[in-house]
Amino acid sequence: MKIFDAHSDVLYKMWMDPTIDFRNSSKLHITYDQLKATGSKVQCFAIYIPEGVKPESRFEVALEMVEIFYQKVIAPFPLLKIVRTREDILSLKEGEIGAFLTLEGCDAIDQSIVKLQSLIRLGVSSVGLTWNYANFVADGVGEPRGGGLSSFGVEVVKELNNASIWTDVSHLSVKGFWDVMEVADYPIASHSNVIEICNHRRNLNKEQIEALIKKNGMIGITFVPQFLQNQGDASIEDVVKHLDYICSLGGENNVGFGSDFDGITDTTMGLENYKGYEALINKLLKHYSEKQVKKFLYDNFIENLPV
């Protein structure tokens, strides 16, 4: 089956360790060989700027990750194609895999719409407004004051609307989430789970999930163990529980997967790397019809792309 994975941190890992080979490095959860063997059709690659990078260097680091994307992920593999739109994805030939560039946190753009526009011009097609902490756009879930969108943040979301690309609410404060719901035309949560099942600040509550569904937004269930299970080891069965819950709220057409592979140290049992999707598919087919499983894995994200 075709797979659309809405979040990974491959670029961050390759930036941290320039010796990593995307083809088959054992240091990566996602490699080209695994994508090709497991049924990937679209893989999202996030630009994530580590907190330790000085503010004046963040945009430059973002550009370095863009170069890693083009030079080390795309260039060596003719079957990997940059995609931005539904048409790009649907035009992929048999065996070709779409690579979708995203931004995780607007720390890189400082207070500059021009920097945001430049990253979009370079291929960024989904923008997460924060990581866990505050920037000039909004507060993240880890910011004690819990503020919402700034006036600049509203400007950023409107720019994303104009560019017809996703505004990603994963990592946002609760207040920021609701502010985005007021302004964004294309909101998604690329890698977030259900707080009623696992009480983690990064997860979404029932009202947030319902709001995303109402706006035709997507929720990408993530494989981060701490977001799946309150205690003990997380398993594929826990992934299914979060999926079941979102479907019970009417989200059958608004749920997919955003693994967060290569952005995590601990992994979920059976989902230690991208090849774990095979076991996940087998488990899903015991709970849902083949048509539904295809929607969760791929079709829903394609249908909910802005363009």
Measured between the Cα atoms of the first and last residue, the distance is 23 Å
Number of strands: 9
- The pLDDT mean sits at 97
CATH topology category name: TIM Barrel
Q: Please summarize the sheet with the most strands.
A: 9 strands, parallel
| Unreliable runs | none
Succession of helices and strands: EHHEHEHEHEHEHEHEHHEHH
- Which term fits the overall shape? globular
Domain module count: 1
What's this model, at a glance?
With 307 residues, the protein is an alpha/beta fold.
Please provide a written account of the structure.
39% of the residues lie in helices and 13% in strands. The protein is built from 12 helices and 9 strands. Strands 1, 2, 3, 4, 5, 6, 7, 8 and 9 form a 9-stranded parallel β-sheet that branches. It is globular. The mean pLDDT is 97.
